[in-house]
Known about the structure:
By secondary structure, the protein is of the alpha/beta class. It has a single domain (2-232), classed as Bira Bifunctional Protein, Domain 2 (BirA Bifunctional Protein, domain 2), CATH 3.30.930.10. Helices cover 29% and strands 30% of the residues. It is built from 5 helices and 12 strands. Strand 7 (139-141) and strand 8 (144-149) form a beta hairpin. Helix 3 (116-133) crosses helix 5 (213-228). The longest helix has 22 residues, at 14-35. The chain is globular, with a radius of gyration of 18 Å.
Amino acid sequence: MQQVRFIDLGLIDYKQAWDFQEKLFDGIVQTKISNRNLTENQQQPTNNYLIFCEHPHVYTLGKSGDEQNLLVNETQLKEKQATYYKINRGGDITYHGPGQIVGYPILDLDNFFTDIHKYLRYLEEMVILTLREYGIESGRSEGETGVWLDTGNPLKVRKICAMGVRASRWVTMHGFAFNVNTDLDYFNNIIPCGIVDKSVTSLNKELGYEVNEEEVKNKMKNHFVNLFQCQLI
Length: 233
């Protein structure tokens, strides 16, 4: 059973959380580099982290993203009290804001399995299983990451959780954004993930009431532990 340190940063500025991620990520990578020159008995174990947080209004654009998918200018961003960052994860543009559970697993996949595809499917499954506990059936959309509702109906399909990760030397960072009590109006200012023909939704919108976010986090943590066969500390 691998140990994963759980950290809840609460509401935190996006750049502050990104810097914190980078620090933990770099620490794991440096340990792995140092271990290469040591015998197995001398090698230091690498740490694993699961970070939950929430951000003030912010738009982030991944490496492969198109800036045209941000539909507002700098002045309009200020009016909406939102910030904008180009970042080093995969994927296109997305929105983070209050009422959204953002998760940053910083894992050394050498401690689990060295398969990014499997890693992403596990993160999706964690959200799918959590939604099922609220009586909502969700799934995957072929060729796209994240968690979706009504994937069999092109007119109704909508995304409830976006994903974008970075991995180097099998160490992960960035992660997922699960819309729980999110103000979905902010998604009108972007073409989410560069996908023009699908909408977004939230747990709140689907259920018709405000959801206890701590309860959702606990459910997600339980599924994370079962999927990754780890212990949260």
